[in-house]
UniProtKB/TrEMBL annotation:
The keyword Transmembrane helix applies. Keywords: Membrane, Transmembrane, Transmembrane helix. The keyword Manganese does not apply. It comes from the Bacteria. The chain crosses the membrane at residues 21-45, 162-186, 218-238, 369-390. InterPro entries: PepSY-ass_TM (IPR005625). This is PepSY domain-containing protein. Pfam families: PepSY_TM. It comes from Chryseobacterium paridis.
Length: 400
């Protein structure tokens, strides 16, 4: 009797093209994917690490705590005189926890420079005991590891406006690589499926096979979270992605525009206690929140003049998703509008939550741990993928 010859099923056209795209894109943007993945992964636990390293500046000694803090205007003047910086203080973040210090921010960037270090003119965080006025710590964020990692993740330390091109395009190609990777991973039969979910190295001795399995198995498990991280990343980068989310969630491509509120007290002399009035009202309305941020120089993040004083209230520590906004008159300190998180539409709520989803913080500490592990795997994929290609290149036609 003649033995039956079982011929391997030829790969489909979909798998053939998936293989080509996966290889071409991997070789073209693999290094950028490695840098972006590693910098993003190392950034995940920023808050936890900084809270430990800056503990003495963040936490106030119990014996210095009083019933009422000093005026924020007085604190600002004290910091300005002591540090004598060229640029004015931008904003202050105020915790609701009385045992934590106020955090004042100096920030100024130049749009003319082409790289991170020349483009950031100043980025300093100043922690102050709000009861005594003592400066507890001054941190030059410009040279801190986490802002550098953030810039590396966003634009490879180049001008931030170049992010959509130098990082955004490779991330779009990475999304295609993840999809084609899942197609290539998908087994053709039940027998092949067993070896795709976990490592079977009992009789495997070659490093090439082990490297292939690392790329194949780990890549599959990380691919779904990697897709989520990538899509939430390009949400920041490309307006049409954000518009698609807005339309899917709320039926309109645009988020509701915030109405500019005219000041009813613009003709009155400015109240010197305007910031303290805003702080008092914010504490009263959102007493269970974590902290709130308020601009002090009359300008927004883009450097444009503000017609009023917007106060952003964060409900949970380390989270940006659940936030409320209060608008105060910049002349009198009168409350003009209250925009609670609960009254936002679905697209607005998602817009606030996108950053937390991107970093994993939306899902708490467990989410950060999972995102960190997935990030490490994403960092390894360009390396293991390159080694797979190199091994095949060196021994063309031989099985792994």
């Amino acid at each position: 009797m003649h033995k039956k010859h079982h011929h391997k099923k030829k790969p489909s056209a979909t798998k053939k093209w998936s293989s080509k795209l996966h290889l071409w894109f991997g070789l073209s943007v693999g290094l950028i994917v490695f840098i972006v993945s590693l910098s993003g992964t190392l950034y995940v636990f920023k808050d936890e690490i900084q809270n430990v390293l800056r503990k003495d500046a963040i936490e106030i000694k119990k014996e210095t705590i009083k019933d009422q803090p000093l005026s924020v205007e007085l604190l600002r003047e004290k910091i300005t005189l002591e540090l004598n910086e060229k640029y004015p203080i931008n904003s202050v973040e105020i915790p609701l926890d009385k045992s934590k210090s106020y955090s004042f921010l100096y920030y100024k960037k130049s749009k003319e420079e082409w790289n991170y270090f020349q483009g950031i003119l100043i980025n300093k965080q100043v922690y102050v005991n709000q009861y005594t006025g003592e400066i507890l710590g001054v941190y030059n964020e410009k040279y801190d590891i986490f802002p550098i990692l953030k810039s590396l993740h966003w634009s490879l330390l180049l001008k931030s406006e170049w992010g959509p091109y130098v990082v955004g395009i490779p991330v779009v190609l990475f999304i295609i690589m993840l999809i084609t990777g899942i197609i290539l991973w998908w087994p053709q039969n039940k027998k092949a499926r067993k070896g795709r979910f976990w490592f079977n190295w009992k009789n495997v001795k070659t490093w090439k096979r082990k490297n292939y399995d690392l790329h194949n198995v780990l890549g599959f498990y990380a691919s779904f979270i990697a897709l989520l991280m990538s899509i939430t990343g390009i949400y920041f980068t490309y307006p049409y992605v954000k518009n698609a989310f807005n339309f899917a969630l709320s039926g309109s491509i645009n988020l509701p525009k915030e109405k500019e509120l005219a000041s009813p007290d613009s003709l009155l002399q400015k109240n010197k206690a305007v910031f303290d009035l805003a702080i008092y009202e914010t504490r009263k309305l959102y007493s269970t929140s974590s902290s709130f941020r308020m601009p002090l120089n009359g300008k927004n993040k883009k450097g444009k003049d503000l017609k009023n004083i917007p106060v952003t209230i964060y409900q949970k520590d380390g989270r940006f998703s659940d936030r409320n906004v209060l608008i105060f008159d910049k002349h009198s300190g009168k409350l003009l509008a209250n925009r609670p998180h609960q009254k936002l539409n679905t697209a607005e709520k998602y817009s606030n939550a996108n950053y937390d989803i991107h970093t994993g913080s939306y899902f708490g500490l467990a989410g950060k741990i999972i995102w960190f592990i997935a990030g490490l795997i994403c960092t390894s994929l360009p390396v293991t993928g390159f080694l797979v290609w190199w091994g095949k290149r060196k021994k063309q036609g031989k099985k792994i």
